[in-house]
What we know:
Layout (H helix, E strand, L loop, with lengths): L1 H38 L12 H6 L5 H8 L1 H33 L5 H13 L2 H11 L6 H8 L14 H26 L3 H9 L4 H29 L3 H6 L11 H10 L4 H25 L9
Amino acid sequence: MAMKNKERKKIIQAIPFMLPSIAGMVLFSLLPMLIAIALSFTGWSGLGKFSFSMVSKQFIGLENYQRLLSKGEFWTAVGHVLYFVVLYLPLSFFFSMLVALILNSGRKLSGLYRILYYIPVLTSWVAASLIWKWVLSSQYGVFNSILSIFGMQGPDWLTSKYWAMPGIVLASVWKDMGFYGLYIFGGLRTIDTGYYEAAQIDGAGKWVTLTRITIPLLSPTLFYCLIMSLINAFQIFPQVQIMTGGGPNGATQVPVERIYTYAFSYFKMGYAAAFSWLLFLIILALTLIQLKAQKAWVHYET
């Protein structure tokens, strides 16, 4: 009983320190979510003053959701982002793992490498997108100029419906590999070196050590990176908006770009809110599937 009273007293003492964080979460996360739910059932344009009386006057029920699910545009945007995910995840994990292994190798100037690999993460997406728009330009881009040195003609990256999304993937991998690489590097540092010493005594090679020791013990970190990268991939927007604007011919239209367009270009705020909630449900479903599937490959040390 005395222990419970002490715990209750500690909680009461902690509440004043937690209030600013709780208030911020309610005002900037929970309240906007509730408003978005209400708006998704209305035909509000976003131009008038928001009020609960407006919500009741412009209430249209499930009409926004029915229109979205019946239109091919929604499924096309989801298909585009799935195509992005298929290209992005393997490349992102490969280069992030490569970065982490280089940083963990203990070579000279490893501190400098950490800074260099992390610079793209610190760069704003606006600046990074403009840089890559120049790099992938079919007329004066650096990428195609390098290919021409080897006698290869580079594609029209951002003006071709076949190459626009791979171009966005290249920019995204370059921007994110330092972020996930640093996480994986942190996971590598937590692995007990005794495992590697035992493997060396047994005569295990580098490939066996990587696949039988490093990756299994690193699986919790890889799982976290997988969830975060998948969520971020489904929410891609700035690189698409700046590099292609959803083109060419809608080849890079993705859900968040469509939400932005409907909300602030077409002034269909209720429709955009419904779009955003359907995107949320897709991300939630994929995350729950990953949480369920982790039991098959994620190994937590006990």
